[in-house]
Amino acid sequence: MGDMISSFSRYKSLTWLICVLMMAVLFTQCSSETTYFHQYKSVDIDGWNSEDTIVFHITPASTNTVMNAEIGVRTTNAFIYNKLFLKGTLQCEGDDIVTDTLFVTIFDKKGVNLGDGLPYPLCTKAIPPIRMDSGKVYTYTITPLMQSSSVEGVKDVGLKLYFTDK
């Protein structure tokens, strides 16, 4: 009887230890996100022209840092393409201009909108991280890069900068 109680006690202790270790692993693997900048700008639903530039003015960071970044696009039913191609340009006072070609997938191959929310589904896409020097003002501009000179069905375009805390 004593051996059985001792075995049960060891089993209970081992189970408890495994649960504590699993919780520790889960908590260390979870990451949280701290948003530094998150803003959307509306565009003309009837046609976002290639000359219509969206400009985001980013306030200076307090320290030199690298931030994760993503763009977001809200569309209407009038948007007819699978992907929206964009030109993203980062400019800082006194620094070089960095330009990148970006795209956001709006519909899958079957024509299903990949966005979340109604009535204007939001699709997001991670873009290359942005390095920011303290005290400098940054400007990020986005323009459409489509074959058509005017893209219908885009409602809002946004930029989000954030830190990932681990």
Helices and strands in order:
Elements: H1 2-29, E1 32-42, E2 48-49, E3 54-58, E4 65-75, E5 83-92, E6 98-105, E7 122-132, E8 138-144, E9 150-151, E10 154-165
Overall average residue pLDDT? 86
CATH topology of the largest domain: Jelly Rolls
Q: Number of domains in the coordinates?
A: 2
Instruction: Name the CATH homologous superfamily of the largest domain.
Output: Galactose-binding domain-like
Number of helices: 1
Q: What percentage of residues falls in helices of 4 or more residues? A: 10-25%
Quickly give the CATH architecture of the largest domain.
Sandwich
The biggest beta sheet reads: 4 strands, antiparallel
Task: Explain briefly what this protein structure is.
The protein is an alpha+beta fold and 166 residues long. Helix content is 17%, strand content 48%. It has 1 helix and 10 strands, in the order H-E-E-E-E-E-E-E-E-E-E.
Report on the architecture of this protein.
Helices cover 17% and strands 48% of the residues. It has one helix and ten strands. It has one helix at 2-29, and strands at 32-42, 48-49, 54-58, 65-75, 83-92, 98-105, 122-132, 138-144, 150-151, 154-165. The protein has a four-stranded antiparallel sheet, with no helix packed on it. The chain starts with a helix and ends with a strand. 20% of the residues are buried.
